[in-house]
Amino acid sequence: MTLGTQTPRSDAVAAAAAIEQLRGTVEALEREIARIIVGQEIVVRGVTIALLAGGHVLLEGLPGLGKTLLVRTIARALQLQYSRVQFTPDLMPADILGTNVLLDSAHGGRAFQFQPGPIFANLVLADEINRATPKTQSALLEAMQEQAVTVGTVGHSLPRPFFVLATQNPIELEGTYPLPEAQLDRFFFKLLVPFPGPEDLAEIARRTTGVVEADLRSVASGEDLTAMSHLAREVPIAEPVMSRAVRLVLGTHPENSDAPEDVRRFVRWGASPRGLQTLILAGRIRALLEGRFNVALEDLEAIAAPALRHRVFLNFEADAAGVDSDRVVAAVIQATGAERR
């Protein structure tokens, strides 16, 4: 199926029907999540876009904001095998990947048999990922990129689809291990989970202190997610929109002559090519969810922050001035928007 303007009428009708089905499935998923999670619509939509793109998500927020509950709820609503790994300083790579165990065979001998770890699931929650040592954090790298792990000399494929949703606590940073740039870049989105307002706080208290629990229904399967991901990749993108995406990424590099002042002053390294891939794919998915068959500039602007905030690395001057990556990304959006005007 192709969504371009040159398709025959029958194919165009079929494409429109498939897109409406995708939107209906996403809306049903978000309704089910809303039965458990109060508010956080922007975070839920961001996670949904990342899942449709087949990407991993880094969730950052204060304790008690429902990050773990959100991941568990998504797994229930999508018929996905769910696994949780609580990251601690004494966690070892084998605790995540699995290990070879010596077992007695049926013929009386002994043989090594691979016992898979919690990474062998469709949806893996890496809880407080920055509390584990770099050695353990690196055990996720191959899994996140290759959807396979190597134990000893033998490779093992992970279930499909495979998603890692990692949480990170921005406070209590003593004794933690910040994720290296290479690992941060493997996350499709970094989403900030805000503190709820008064009305949402009251609703949280009502839902969690009563006797009635919401009974979720499944709205899609892993195969449905894969099919919807393939559909999203067919959304066309015009050259001016592609050019804007390229300028957004290049604008995060301080050596670029067109970079805004905040970038040249506060940024050490800008976004990688993965940042551009994220902008394009997330823009395609957002366009479908907004009921359009093509990517618009507003799609790029809407997803620029979660796509780039963890791919822009600031210097010491930014830390001293209290400048965060969201301010830098906003400056790049404004500068590249002014170019086309």
Can you walk me through this structure?
The protein is 48% helix and 15% strand. By secondary structure, it is of the alpha/beta class. It has two domains: 24-212, Rossmann fold; 233-340, Magnesium chelatase subunit I, C-Terminal domain (Helicase, Ruva Protein, domain 3, Orthogonal Bundle), CATH 1.10.8. The chain has a five-stranded parallel sheet with strand order 2-5-8-1-9. A two-stranded antiparallel ribbon has the order 3-4. A hairpin with a 2-residue loop joins strand 6 (148-151) and strand 7 (154-157). The longest helix is centred in the N-terminal third of the chain and has 26 residues, at 9-34. The mean pLDDT is 84.
The assigned structural class equals alpha/beta
Number of discrete helical segments: 15
Radius of gyration over all CA atoms, rounded? 22 Å
Beta-strand percent range: 5-15%
The CA-CA distance between the termini, in Å, is 36 Å
Estimate percent helicity.
Answer: 40-55%
Q: Which ranges are low-confidence, i.e. pLDDT below 50, for 5 or more consecutive residues?
A: none
Largest sheet: 5 strands, parallel
CATH H-tier superfamily of the largest domain: P-loop containing nucleotide triphosphate hydrolases
Q: Number of folding domains?
A: 2
Under CATH, the topology of the largest domain is which? Answer: Rossmann fold
Topology at a glance:
Blueprint: H1 9-34, H2 41-53, E1 57-60, H3 67-77, E2 82-86, H4 93-97, E3 98-104, E4 110-116, E5 123-127, H5 134-137, H6 139-146, E6 148-151, E7 154-157, E8 163-168, H7 181-184, E9 189-192, H8 198-208, H9 222-232, H10 239-250, H11 261-266, E10 267-269, H12 273-289, H13 297-308, E11 313-314, H14 316-321, H15 325-340
Parallel strand pairs: 1-8, 1-9, 2-5, 5-8
Antiparallel strand pairs: 3-4, 6-7, 10-11
Helix pairs in contact: 1-2, 2-12, 10-12, 10-13, 12-13, 13-15
